[in-house]
Amino acid sequence: MKISNHLLFIAGLLNFGFAVGQAAISIVPAWAAAFGASNTLASNPTVLLVAGLLVTLLFGIAGLYGLSGAGVIRRLPLLRLGLFVIGALYTLNGIVFVPQLLSVLGILPSPQVIQVLPMLASAAFLLVGLLYLGGLASAWKSLKIRNFSPSAVINY
Q: How confident is the model over 65-118, as pLDDT tens digits?
């Protein structure tokens, strides 16, 4: 198995872990409040459940794209674009970890106290984003779009 397959496989599995965690948080309002949900969201279990399950679905789709890029499951449509967008969004969301870490280490001044949970979430998002982008970069040629021909569809 190539390194790109390993990176994308790990990213896909981590996304399924995110999905399970998000589903659990959206089912239990007390957990949602503990993880930083607003009082209005935590006090309305129906809205919390719907919003949480939508985010769970997005994590699941991202996990499927990771597994597809790793070659574990069938190739999904727009695979290279999907992997790039997922990796870029995770990396952009997780890049906040760098100034948070520098603030905790005392290198950068911080106007407020850095919370541990958001810092860990940012680190996890940055890690997964880099796994997606690294796996995509190393497998770019092997993820080439196939030429479409009617006989290819019939023989597939």
A: 999 999 999 999 999 999 999 999 999 999 999 988 888 888 888 888 888 888
**Residue 26 near residue 55, CB atoms below 8 Å:** yes
- Quickly list DSSP for 79-101: HHHHHHHHHHHHHHHHTTHHHHH
State the average pLDDT over residues 11-36: 92
Residue 154 lies in a domain: no
For residues 138 and 83, is the Cβ–Cβ distance under 8 A? no
The CA-CA-CA angle for residues 3, 80, 124, to 5°, reads: 60
Residue 156 falls inside a structural domain? no
DSSP 8-state secondary structure symbol assigned to residue 74:
P
Number of domains in the chain: 1
pTM of the model: 0.84
Q: Are 128 and 90 in contact, with CB atoms under 8 Å apart?
A: yes
Angle among Cα 47, 48, 50 to the nearest 5 degrees reads 65
Domain-located, residue 155? no
In this structure, is residue 152 part of a structural domain? Answer: no
By residue range, what is the domain housing residue 119? 3-145
pLDDT at residue 156 greater than cutoff 50: no
Query: Which burial class, exposed, middle or buried, applies to 4 when counting CB atoms under 10 A from its CB (0-12, 13-18, 19+)?
Result: buried
